[in-house]
Amino acid sequence: MQHPHRLTLVPAGDIHLWVPRSSTLRAFATAAPDPRPVTPDQQRRLEVAGEPREVDDDVNPWIGLRATLHEADFTTFAGTLRRFCARHESLRCMFVRRPDGSFERRIVDAAQIAFQPHFLGHHDDPAEAFDAVMAELDDRTGPLSWPAATVVTVTDEHGDITVFAAFDHVTFDGYSAYLTMGELKQHLRDELSHAPLPEPVGSYVDFAVEQRAVQDAIGPDDPALEPWRRAADATGDLPGLPRATGVRRGDRLRHRLRFPTFAGPRLSTAFEQWADDLGIPRALAYTAVLLQAMGAEEDDRVLTVLMSTHNRHRPEYHEAIGWFSGIVPLTVDLGRDLPLVEVVRRTAEAWRFARTAETVPLPLANSLLGTRMRPSVVLSFLESRHCPGRDDWEELNATVFLGEVEPSDEMHVYINAMPYGTELAHRSPDTPPCTEWLDRVMARMREQMTTVTRRATDPLEARR
Question: Given 21, 259, 342, 362, which residue has the most CB atoms within 10 angstroms?
């Protein structure tokens, strides 16, 4: 999967890998086990990571970011990383396999965290620099060592340091990446001013305790399983991608990552005002538009997708780093030629039912139901323009990007509200029929939004 910004993402310059000091690794080795458990999702991710891989297997589905820290040097950047770990307990956590195959946590204090740079080489060609950075992120990122992330910096000819960080999913979700981009600059400011270490925010480890307690109490007859039970087909799996994509269940197709802006700022603002005037949550309005556009491509107007839940229910979790996001099955009967407000109503009704399963991760549902459900279409909505630290993204030239996933029949689609409009970021099978289907879906979304707002969109606002 070639990144669309391959030739601009990484500058030429000196490349350094940031590694923990030996004193930090000794602290982990001697730390007492933390009694708090891992979640079922984490358990499964750790088990998969422990399985042998082929020598030439480059697949590593991390979540990453880049940001240029103009005022940093090596000393202050090391302090910035320490402050980042100090604020988030889950980043000071190492996972260790027990003899029975389960995993325990070991957590160290912020005072025991220290990083140092390791020189990897100099590259005058940005394309070669990109390949070198991506190789490090792909080869090293995983949950079974500390940190469960890989941090690489490139120092360009002006002395500016650009950081590239890849985090394993075991401790990171998509929103965590957006939070981190702005947070790094704040930590650098504090390091430059010699401020005290930051106070920790809500801990994902505590969230995991809450989730595990709820999940351990769920049995095969629990009502929370009902959305999963209804979503499974006769084979015990979830429905595959819409037929018009040309992708069939069991296909092993390489994926492509794209970030098209399907609606510019004027149309997006008008649509959001339409939703506000009707008292419709914006996330629901955009989701309904997407579902209606998907359904219009199909003969069967009943769609089943997986919808992300962000699960940051407590205020202390709103700025916390962790694997908070989950998925629930959403089935909507879209009817034919329905007005958008009716599609919104049906989507809201389906969402209320789907959310009753948000405490049941997919691995647990399969275990309790005896099914073998796998993701197919996964949808999400992100209000990234209001993310803490958002105002600094442009200065940092910051962006989120993803590691390569294994070939599959899955599609992940993220509606992302940004200042310059609304993206339909997606990672999907890289075939002409699937790409053309997504392009048609985006065109239908623009058409629906234009119809309800009576506001024409400038086609030049839809970029890439």
Answer: 362
Number of C-beta neighbours around residue 194 at 10 A: 7
Q: Please state the pTM of the whole predicted model.
A: 0.89
Can the peptide bond before residue 459 be classed as cis, meaning omega within 30 degrees of 0?
no
What is the rounded distance in angstroms from the CA atom of residue 343 to the CA atom of residue 10?
Answer: 43
Packed helices 174-192 and 74-87: angle between N→C axes, nearest 10 degrees = 130
Distance CA 407, CA 236 (A): 21
Q: Nearest CA to 438 among 460, 462, 421, 417? A: 462
Q: Tokens 């401790």 sit at which residue?
A: 171
Question: pLDDT 10s digit of each residue in the chain, 464 long?
Answer: 334 444 457 899 999 999 999 999 999 999 999 999 998 889 888 988 877 766 566 678 899 999 999 999 999 999 999 999 999 999 999 999 889 888 999 999 999 999 999 999 999 999 899 999 999 999 999 999 999 999 999 999 999 999 999 999 999 998 899 899 989 999 999 999 999 999 999 999 999 999 999 999 999 999 999 999 999 999 999 999 999 999 999 999 999 988 899 999 999 999 999 999 999 999 999 999 999 999 999 888 899 999 999 889 899 999 999 999 999 999 999 998 899 999 999 999 999 999 999 999 999 999 999 999 999 999 999 887 777 877 888 888 888 888 888 899 999 999 988 878 899 999 999 999 999 999 999 999 999 999 999 875 554 454 43
The answer to whether the Cα torsion of 265, 266, 272, 276 is positive or negative is positive
